Amino acid sequence: MGAIMVPIWARAVSRVKKEISKKRMPLMGIGAAFSFLVMMFNVPLPGGTTGHAVGATLVALLLGPEAACISVTIALLLQALLFGDGGILAFGANTFNMAFVIPFSGYYLYSFLKDRLSYKKWNYIAIFISAYLAINLAALFAGIEFGLQAALFKDASGLPLYAPYALSIAIPGMLIPHLLVVGVLEGFVTSGVYGFIINTSPGIIYEGAKTRMKPVYILVLTMICLSPLGLLVHGTAWGEWGATEISSITQGGKTLGYVPSGMRTGFSLKTMLPAYSAQGMPQILGYIVSAVAGASILIIIFKLIADSKKGASKV
Length: 315
What we know:
Elements lengths: L1 H18 L5 H14 L4 E2 L5 E2 L4 H8 L1 H19 L7 H24 L7 H31 L14 H34 L12 H14 L23 E2 L2 E2 L5 H4 L18 H26 L7
Antiparallel strand pairs: 1-2, 3-4
């Protein structure tokens, strides 16, 4: 999956260099920070698992799908390296699903729907539908990726080395919660924040309009302050089970009962703030510190990229 992403990243970087000006480049940092923060807000899902929105369609609608691809990729990389969320070995698959499938499908679905909805207020319906379908398409790909692991990679005894469930279980396991809950959340978040941006800082979307960054920073700060709400939800996202919990997972009334050998002897990375927490720090404070650190680092990264960009290119 990482190999598949290499030409996608190359094309995205090339397009961003040509189409995003030095002045607008820091907005990619805001987009990355928003995606990072919205992924910290977990919601309960059917079956006792959890899920989260991604915000990739929103960033694509504001800055273009290539810019969104880069922003969400950097957000996912920071999650993996600093917080141990998502994982290093899964980075290629995660970026394919969330930094490629969602922003590109969401952007082009919206473009298709927008041209066919004449009534102005239907624009938000088009945004909702696009974001809803895009994240569910990503969930479908994730389900296929989980199911293919069980089919292709087995140990000497014939048991799956990694993800243990076949396509017939993995695809519904991913799709049903996203169709019922996560897709709706993604649709509301995308259309709601898009409406907020167009009313407070339309210059982010329309060239020549007024750009006010203060409301955008207030939105980011509000999300940071509310981030501990993600702690209220217990349970692991479907397919993200660790080696210590996977054997007790129940699916279809049956307990798995073993730890796949590839997980038992797998790669482990120690991070500075694992699971958005710090040793000796209250969990809520650790979550806020993680939110501040993650959002700040992402904004700084793109500000430094903008400062290193010579001249002003096409907006």
